[in-house]
Amino acid sequence: TTADLETEFDRIVQSDQRIEPRDWMPDGYRKTLIRQIAQHAHSEIIGMQPEGNWLTRAPSLRRKAILMAKVQDEAGHGLYLYSATETLGVDRAELTENLIEGRQKYSSIFNYPTLSYADVGVIGWLVDGAAICNQVPLCRSSYGPYGRAMIRVCKEESFHQRQGFEMLMTMMSGTQAQRDMVQESVNRWWWPALMMFGPPDDRSPNSAQSMAWRIKRHTNDELRQRFVDMSVPQAEVLGVTFPDPDLAWNADRGAYDFGEPDWDEFMQVVKGNGATSVERIANRRAAHENGAWVRAAAGAFAARTAASEKE
Ligand code: ACO
């Protein structure tokens, strides 16, 4: 009976075992996973654009090769994650349609422009740093295909984070103009990076249920705090500051106090009114449409192969 199936599902989740594609799962669990994993996949794919913007202007062959590898990794992450959603009964073509029609979200962070080359380093350091903070616990997500995909994704994100930090260290030991460029970039990206963790817990409609299902392992505010605590000492090593007058060590809590991100700005960006929202989706749509002939050719080839196997 459904009651037995539910009991078994709860037992698996509560004992920290994995739910696998063929297991029974509540509709809400399936829907939540499709929503979160699809948004995550879209973020990886859209996330190729801000940094891809600097590929033709990387200052050396070495920097260009690193950046190209990183942007390709993001495509790989997107494809893993689309595969994970396919195990839940949706297909990639449908998800891509949802993205380019604006029916599904992707991370707010990718709706900001990359104005200077320092942004490549700062995205690696802070944006990929925030992504790791959020995604390492997702390796223990209750849904097997998602948790397993996260393991490799996190390894690659660690490489991205280090390449960003190393690039910024190099710039910080360069000229005053380079140091200023890094600080200016940090000033623009700090608050948007904090917003990546989602709205505050008391305004996060999905958190409680996702935590109960062990899809999410920590709340948005817990992970945001963890990220701030991790980033402050790194900023000191680099020699940059964060644009937050309220940032201060709190000995009682054993953590940093910090200011409130501008949640109105966050809501606007999530609604599709970010500085580059229209451009990001237009580029994704154009890439999809320009690839139509590849999909048609692959489909024709598969049909012909299937027909000749029947003969
Ligand atoms: N950007 C865009 N939308 C967001 C963001 C964000 N930074 N944070 C929250 N939202 C959306 C949620 O998707 C949700 O919308 P929906 O109900 O229409 O789907 C709404 O705001 C309310 O938020 P929550 O109830 O807190 O949603 P949720 O429990 O899903 O938590 C979070 C949001 C933390 C982003 C979670 O979905 C998650 O951990 N996702 C996986 C990580 C991920 O997607 N990373 C992508 C960026 S990292 C990278 O690609 C480099």
* Average of pLDDT: 97
Write the element-wise H/E pattern from the N-terminal end onward.
Answer: HHHHHHHHHHEEHHH
Stretches where pLDDT is under 50 for at least 5 consecutive residues are: none
> What portion of the residues fall into strands of 2 or more residues?
under 5%
Number of strands: 2
Query: Which shape, going by the Cα principal axes?
Result: globular
Structural class, by secondary structure, is mainly alpha
Supply Rg: 21 Å
> Which cofactor or ligand species appear?
acetyl coenzyme *A
Q: What helical percentage do the residues reach?
A: 55-70%
For the record, give the distance between the C-alpha atoms at the N and C termini, rounded to a whole number: 45 Å
Instruction: Output the number of helix runs.
Output: 13
Major sheet details = 2 strands, antiparallel
Read across the widest sheet, the strand sequence of neighbours is 1-2
